[in-house]
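Dear support,

I submitted the protein below through the web form. The confirmation email said the job was done, but the results page showed an empty box. After a refresh the structure appeared. I'm attaching both so you can tell me whether what I see now is the final result or a partial one.
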Amino acid sequence: MKYFVISGEPSGDLHGSKLMAGLKAEDPKAEFRFCGGDRMAEVGGWEGLLLHYKEMSFFGFVTVLKNLKTIFGQMDRVKAAIAEFQPDVVILIDYPSFNMRIAKWCKAQGIRVFYYIAPKVWAWKEFRVKGIRRYVDRLFTIFPFETDYFRKWGIEPIFCGNPLVDDIAEWREKLPTPEAFREINALDERPIVALLAGSRVSEIRANLPNMVALANQFPAYQFVVTAVPWIDKTLYDQYLAGSEVRYLCDKTQQTLAMSEAAVVTSGTATLETALMGIPEIVLYKIPKLYEVLRPYVLKIPWVSLVNINMGREVVRELVCAKLDPQVAAEELRAILPGGTKRAQMEADFRELQQLIGGEGASRRFAKAMVEELSKRQN
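What the results page shows now:
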């Protein structure tokens, strides 16, 4: 069968590549055209890559507004490529601002649409649920709580686990020993606390100063910021200057695996940290206006995927316009070895791991998709 897969972000490229590998295993005659990145190209062939996510990643209202002509031009290219390829299905991976428009167009053309990794409509922009119900033939979700949520809207999603579990398992096989990790990265013998300040420039500017200030209160620990490779080191340097916080690039999971605890921004990183069993607190600075409007805009009481999936506060979320350094220090101290909250958090993380499911999610999703398409052909 023929598959047209669309991802517009690095995480989508990773999950898309694993899904495509699963599709090839379930359907040996699979043909691909796609928007994504290097990982998807390694599976589907570089000749099938239409747009790289680096060309498609526009975040923030102003940035999107400035690039509207480019974005709409890319949509036209994608539509033309789909029409030429005539796929059995178009598989959309997250990236809702772009992908929901493609879904609407596909529906009008009579092209089957699968949505893999649903837009986070349960948090904001709930109006998109109506579009999913109208334009998407099958929805594939990666969080267990989403099943009940979408059922309330008349959508029966398919949940097969979370591909993060596979990513973590692969990384664990490649991990160096703690001694080798410290030697390779010139770290000292103090226990490590990982700082995950975000993957966007705006997040790092907002969160890293507070994280560095927090680190300065714990001289017995070695704090390591896990930088992302697509952001220039000079941005990190301006906030790390004069501190003992170390910089490591593109080694997030290795650093987490070697850490006693982590300080994390919101997003997928909170779930990844928990699934690795590393106690964490969530620290995220927001503008004062957002703090005031948050109860009216956000549909759920939490921002971390850990708490959302568990349906209760498992990790402390310090999401505010002005951080109280004393409160932050107390929360971090409570999850470090010997801390009052550490044992309970570790137990909660084990429960979360059971809830999310085991390895092999990408292959299970691929199998479910092939089965859905086969039903229609038969």
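Response: this is the final, complete result; the empty box was a page-load delay. The CA atoms of residues 160 and 191 lie 36 Å apart.
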